[in-house]
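Usage

Read records sequentially. Each one opens with the input sequence:
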Amino acid sequence: MKLENVWMLLPGRRVGFGTIETEGDSISSVSLREPGKSDRLVLPGLVNCHCHAPMTLLRGVGGGLPLKRWLEEAIFPLEAKLTDEDVHAGALWGAMEMLAGGTTTVADMYEWNYQHAFLEAGMRARVTTVGRLGAPGRLAECIERTRSWNERMRGEARGDVYMDICVHSEYLTDEHFCRELAAANRELGRRLHVHVSETRREHEECVARHGKTPIAYLADTGLLDRGGYAAHCVWCTDDDFRIMAERDVSLVHNPTSNMKLGSGFARIVRAMELGVNVALGTDGTASNDNLDMFEEMHLASLIHKGIANDPTVLSPWDVVEMATKNGAKALGRGDIGEIAVGRKADFCIVDLDRPHLLPAHDLANLVVHSMHSGDVVQTVVGGRTVYDASLGGDAFDGCPISRAAAKEALLASAARILV
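and closes with the structure output:
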């Protein structure tokens, strides 16, 4: 593949103009020249570090409820009706939504065995089976499913979908569950995906139960020994941030979800000051209600400028890196997240010839404050085009199921569970 006469965002916070060439699944050449006319901007593939893709089935359900009531009154009763086929339909549609918006890698958390959806869509993924109480045999299931799936994937030359370990949260597990999963992870060697300190109530009740914060509790159980990525972290303390920096645990910022559920604002600027890697995630479509990483970049930038009363807080480049290279780091990936020779050939290509994107004086600023997912015209994963808007109804030509068939399956499942 050769992308000629394109603008590109490069490592070192540089803007370049020229040609990107790929060989196999990696970038083989990046050649720069004097800028010319072009309406194409190439970004590193976006990395969504906290998502529940199957929840496209529940888009918008329970709007207006706080987290505990949202889960118990709106979400859990509907999820109890889901079948494997429903979850696969929702995950595949979520993958298509993300690919159409330039997201090439996702860290996804849910209950069922649905990894195949990301393989079908041609997307990179780190998937977890939710570790929680109330599901008989779930601890053993989490361990065995992670082990067997990863062994299978290592034996195949296709796809980049592996499983990490997960506990939903401190409040939906107990100490035995956490310590046993941590012990098993000495062999599995995976990073932890977890919800942490999403609400004040969650945070304070954990302190009342254990005499320590959720992050300190998880560290004590051994679940952070292999690093990880913690979603939300709205009520984390400075000491929590120090533990996270020491244990290689990234903070995944979810601005839309945290505001919609009234959870608060994560102190990501302070976390960064204390050495925590900060990435971005959309959360699921019942608490967002879309999977648009450009929107998350935009909100992250504005929220923290407003909170700080300081427009210099979080530069556009800071935010772009949260959605790309920082996301790659959160997942333990040194081979994605940047446009550079030797990195995987994961890109999204944006059409700059749009009324809201001209004139393009500052491309990093434009990405964060003007773009949205609909501006993406092509998405490439591992040198292979997986989404091409110019193909219209066949935009997902590389996927074994057509968009029309995926839509039909999604709507049939959604109609059944919402009865």
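Summary fields computed downstream for this record:
- The two ends are 47 Å apart (CA to CA).
- The mean pLDDT is 96.
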